[in-house]
Design a protein that fits this description.
This protein is α/β, with parallel strands linked by helices. It has helices at 51-62, 80-88, 101-110, 126-130, 161-170, 188-200, 210-213, 234-241, 252-258; strands at residues 6-8, 15-20, 27-32, 35-41, 70-74, 93-98, 118-123, 141-146, 171-183, 203-209, 219-226, 246-250. Strands 7-6-5-8-9-11-10-12 form an 8-stranded mixed sheet, with helices on both faces. Helix 1 (51-62) packs parallel to helix 2 and helix 6 crosses helix 9 (252-258). It is globular. The relative contact order is 0.14.
Length: 286
């Protein structure tokens, strides 16, 4: 049986593989260092598979529904959300920043992007490239997605007060930041990230599985941040959209969730915690 397409990434040395989803026709999964990074349905890019990506998609749907938006994605993966926005928001302008240039080439070759999508890829470290984005984007970006991982961990330098302050300068008045936060029991990293975002942005909310927010297992929490108050009418729609059971934590509840966790600065930042061995690992195929 032939092996799935794969490469060894030049920058990190990690192994990346694209494999078909045997259960969903037309779908593929990008696996890096044994950890599933992205899931793409080429036949229907509006289908989102991972729970945290579904939650991000629901938030994006509430942002100026039906309008084209300007988006910046930090971390490419298989470009699941850029494809989703291109399909649901025709005419949107999108920038994708990715450190692993050969990963982008690999994904484009194996999982081609829609020809009519306005998606520009910029190569380099997410934080460094953010600092070099065109001046015309400052104050004009509707959506910033922070989904930067090296293997299964988020690098420290894209978790700090200083980093999020740079992102805030890019946002339009209606703009939002979506940050994918991976954490486990105790949620110390997630609480600190919520504290850090709250120190930069006017309003912050957390979306996750109920059991995850109780600190009972490892998983992904989506933090939503904006310079303006997040519309309260979003909440029932986000909950109704699933996955279930889910919760939206905002206002006083978010303060309780943060529980006095410190703001992360460049001087104190650490990578996100590693998942327990095997929690996300893809088993070898027969």
């Amino acid at each position: 049986m032939p092996e799935h397409p794969s490469i060894t990434l030049q920058h990190s040395g990690l192994h990346a593989e694209i494999a078909p989803d045997r259960w969903v026709p037309g779908s593929y999964q990008l696996v890096v260092d044994g950890t599933p990074q992205s899931h793409v349905n080429l036949d229907d890019p509006t289908q989102l598979f991972f729970e945290y990506v579904q939650r991000m998609g629901h938030v994006i749907d509430q942002l100026a529904p039906g309008e084209a938006i300007t988006a910046v994605h930090l971390g490419a993966g298989a470009m699941t959300l850029p494809r989703y926005i291109a399909a649901t928001r025709p005419g949107s302008r999108q920038q994708v920043i990715e450190l692993e240039s050969d990963l982008v080439d690999f994904v484009r070759e194996q999982l081609p992007l829609p020809k009519d999508a306005s998606i520009r890829v910029r190569h380099g470290d997410a934080r460094e490239v953010v600092g070099r984005l065109p001046a015309g984007l400052r104050g004009a970006v509707d959506l910033i997605v922070v989904d930067v991982f090296s293997g299964a961990r988020t690098p420290a330098h894209v978790t700090s007060l200083e980093f999020y302050t740079e992102l805030a300068a890019l946002l339009s008045p209606r703009g939002i930041v979506l940050a994918n936060i991976a954490d486990g029991p105790g949620l110390q990293f997630a609480r600190s990230q919520a504290s850090t975002l709250s120190s930069v942005f006017g309003d912050v909310a957390a979306l996750a599985d109920v059991q995850l927010l109780k600190g009972r297992r490892f998983g992904n929490i989506v933090l939503v941040a904006s310079p303006a108050p997040l519309p309260l009418e979003w909440v029932p729609r986000l909950l109704a959209g699933g996955p279930h059971p889910s919760v939206v934590v905002q206002g006083d509840e978010l303060v309780s969730f943060i529980a006095g966790a410190p703001v992360t600065t460049d001087a104190t930042a650490v990578p996100s915690p590693p998942p327990s061995k095997g929690i996300f690992q893809v088993r070898s195929r027969d």
